[in-house]
Amino acid sequence: MKFWNYKNALLIVLAGLLPATVNAADAIKGEEVAVLTDAPEVPPPITRKHSTKVIVNLETKEVKMRLADGVDYTFWTFGGKVPGKFIRIREGDQVEFHLHNHPSSKLPHNIDLHAVTGQGGGAEGSFTAPGHSSTFNFKALNAGLYVYHCATAPVGMHIGNGMYGLILVEPKDGLPKVDREFYVMQSEFYTKGKYGAPGLQPFSMAKAVEEKADYVVFNGNVGAITGDKALKAKVGDSIRLFVGNGGPNLVSSFHVIGEIFDKVYVEGGKLVNENVQTTLIPAGGSAIVEFKTQRASTLILVDHSIFRAFNKGALGMIKVEGEENKEIYSGKTADGIYQPEGGVIQEMGAEAPKQVPAKNLEERLAGGKRIFDTSCFACHQSNGQGLPGAFPPLAGSDFLNKNKDKAISAVIHGLEGPVKVNGKEFNSVMPAQLLSDEDAANVLTYVYSMWGNSKKVVTPEEVKAVRAAGKK
């Protein structure tokens, strides 16, 4: 009986000590200021094995920036960019969050972090007038990749103007090591003018309510991660993309052309799917995708609701340098014409929106660049180099520079059959482009001004004359 009492007493004492021992492992040790980054960069992985106090400083600011070439927009931002800063903390951390609203702001703002368990995800404790700061605290209870956004009324307008970002709560054991991590966030914009309409475009509440987006983009603007700003990698790299969808309305069908996702952390949580081609990311949601590069190529990031990619801006690039492994993908091994319907060239697309005629060369070049970036770059590439064996180069093109009328005819009437450009044979079909005389003159003048070409200027009158003469 005495032994029973002693043993049970000992068990009771141990039972009282165990929770304290477990909690000690999660005890907050020290403090640090969070490293915040602009997209597409990501803060470094967390290597510490304990929880700490993390201080986050984030500023809201209203900034006029580029939405597309020739198009500006007044963005409402977290940190002066769209999307907002990437925040990286660890499961179990105690976060002291400081939200600062820049004195130049015209409106109050707050923040709803989907990683926060509490009233409004922090929105209730962070409503901040211009020129003021607010502070609140939260415990990072759940690992995962979470969206944050402004939740000041009208909430849709604040999100629709650019107020969103991602916060990663790393699991206690961390994420598997990879060679490269990138931050990509999709969102849409609703403007009074149509896609590409120049000037400072205001927000359209009517279009936003009807969910008729003019722009669907990655990282805040058209071309944010294309061309010279494309993401960079090497053959053999393991890549992790932290992908968010700020919305405010549309679901993303996220896909990388030329790759298969080895792993997808579904909706940014712990459930992992493998060998995935396209993953859905809801508005206000996220996903973590991982893959390994196996040959040199330019991988194309798209929303596979495909008109959003090629007509509204939801397109990015990862340029992978290294060996072209022909066993994995050979490239074209044969080329020929197949025209069972008689080789009739089909017109594609609809007439470009009318624009004010260019008053000078600068305006003609700007208009031409807009047309090229929306209609021509997919085949001829942003550097004018074309695609070997498929689409001839525009850069330093002897075909273009030799005869202006032939160049005009190729654009407005189309071109088929063998053609030699810079000493190389191409045998493909270029459909006629339904462009106005003004737009055709603008895009040709832009092409002539670029990539070592002859600087010729094409006028709408010259296009009209070639059009009247018909295809020869």
From TrEMBL:
Signal sequence region: 1-24
Superkingdom of origin organism: Bacteria
EC number, as in UniProt: 1.7.2.1
NCBIfam families: Cu_nitrite_red
Gene label: nirK
Cofactor(s) listed in the protein's UniProt record: Cu(2+); Cu(+)
Protein name per the record: Copper-containing nitrite reductase
Cytochrome c domain ranges (all copies): 363-451
A molecular-function term among this protein's GO annotations: nitrite reductase (NO-forming) activity
Subunit structure: Homotrimer.
InterPro entries in alphabetical order: Cu-oxidase-like_N (IPR011707), Cupredoxin (IPR008972), Cyt_c-like_dom (IPR009056), Cyt_c-like_dom_sf (IPR036909), Cytochrome_c-type_DH (IPR051459), NO2-reductase_Cu (IPR001287)
Keywords: Copper, Heme, Iron, Metal-binding, Oxidoreductase, Repeat, Signal
Organism per entry: Bdellovibrio svalbardensis
Catalytic reaction annotation: nitric oxide + Fe(III)-[cytochrome c] + H2O = Fe(II)-[cytochrome c] + nitrite + 2 H(+)
Similarity annotation: Belongs to the multicopper oxidase family.
Pfam families the UniProt entry points to: Cu-oxidase_3, Cytochrom_C
EC class: oxidoreductase
